[in-house]
Structures are given as C-alpha cells and as structure tokens.
Specification:
Number of strands: 5
Strand content: 25-35%
Distance between the termini: 33 Å
Strand order of the largest sheet: 1-2-3
Shape: globular
Number of helices: 2
Order of helices and strands: HEEHEEE
Radius of gyration: 15 Å
Largest sheet: 3 strands, antiparallel
Number of domains: 2
Length: 103
C-alpha cells in the first residue's frame, strides 16, 4: 500500500466511509524552509481517483504551523477547520480561527 492509498473496503465508488478515513495512513511532511510547519496528511481525493480537485485531511500538531506563508496565482485553495483553534495570517491580518471556520 502506498502512502496515498486507503484501507478502502467498501465497493461503492466515490465513497470513503469514516472508518476508512480513520484507518488511512498519514504522510508526515516538514516544510523545507519552515521547520515549524509540520503537516500530517491523508489524501482523500487521491483515494477516490479524483483528477482535478485535491482534497486532503490535514492534522496539525499543537504549537506547529501548517505551511510557509504563500499565495497562489492560478488556483484556489480552501481550509475548513474541523477541530482545535489557531491563528491564520490572511494578507495583513492575523485572525483567530477555530472549529467550524472556513477560509
């Protein structure tokens, strides 16, 4: 099993059950420029064979960051906070974020 595969056990296409997502391995990545940016990622869209949209479940350890500050010119990105809280830098603003927030 590669790091982007799942323990998919159901035969229904386009569906990952919660138990399958829970059983998926996480890929841990430390950003090469920002060592405080550590992500533990499950590749949900890859598991379903999606080609044009990347959906990932990312767990950020307490006290760590998600990435180096950056922006995209030609693609959109969204973040939905499932649990926990943190601070997001959006342009010139630092904003407190928590479970249920969407960016």
């Amino acid at each position: 099993m590669t790091e982007k595969q799942t323990n998919k056990t159901n035969s229904i296409p386009h569906l990952l059950k919660a138990s399958e997502i829970e059983a998926m391995p996480e890929k841990r990545k430390v950003h090469p420029i920002n060592k405080e940016a550590v992500r533990n990622t499950k590749f949900l869209s890859d598991a379903l064979g999606m080609k044009n949209l990347g959906i990932r479940l990312v767990r950020v350890e307490p006290g760590k960051e998600t990435t180096q500050f950056h922006f995209h010119y030609h693609e959109e990105e969204f973040i939905y906070i499932i649990s926990g809280k943190g601070i997001a830098q959006i342009g010139e603003h630092e904003v407190e974020i928590a479970a249920g927030d969407f960016m």
